[in-house]
Every structure is written in structure tokens, then in C-alpha cells.
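Lab notebook: predicted structure, single chain.

Context: the supervisor wants predicted structures on file for every construct in the current expression panel, including those that have not yet been purified. This is the next one on the list. No modifications to the sequence; it matches the entry in the shared construct table.
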Amino acid sequence: MARYRKKPVEVDAVHYDGTNRDEVAAFMGQTGKVEETKVPGPGRGLHDGIVIHTLEGDMTASVGDWIIRGLQGEYYPCKPGIFAAIYEEA
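Prediction complete. Output recorded below exactly as produced.
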């Protein structure tokens, strides 16, 4: 079995803090549409979130998630712990 290492790649991203839906929409530009929604969160009840349209279909992002623009112009949400483990500021 061979081992593989992820190539170093720089991506653009914006941190969704629950108050910056317009910033996320501007970041995504013409290719993305951002809608407010409620998502299940820790504990009980629903919390603020957004729906973003991706190549794989609609995905939800919770407050604290990062929205990433990939190498081919695609967008996707990423949980903060995963983002911190994979990316560092360039």
C-alpha cells in the first residue's frame, strides 16, 4: 500500500459568524446563492444558519463554519475544527 500526502493548496475562505450573510453572498458572487435557514445545533432547538448552493447540491452552514472557494471555483462549508487542522493563513 502506498501513502499519499495532500498537496499544499491555497484557498479563499470567509468565516460565517451569523451576522455576515451579505459578506458570504458577496464572496460567492454570481455563482452562489445564500439563504438564511435554521439548522440543528448543539443542545436542543434550531440555530441560525445559511444554505449555500454547491456543485453537490444545497448544503447548510452553521454559525462558526468557514465557506471555502475551491480550486475550480466551487464553494463548500467546512466546520471550524477541520478548517483549523487543514488550513493556516497564507
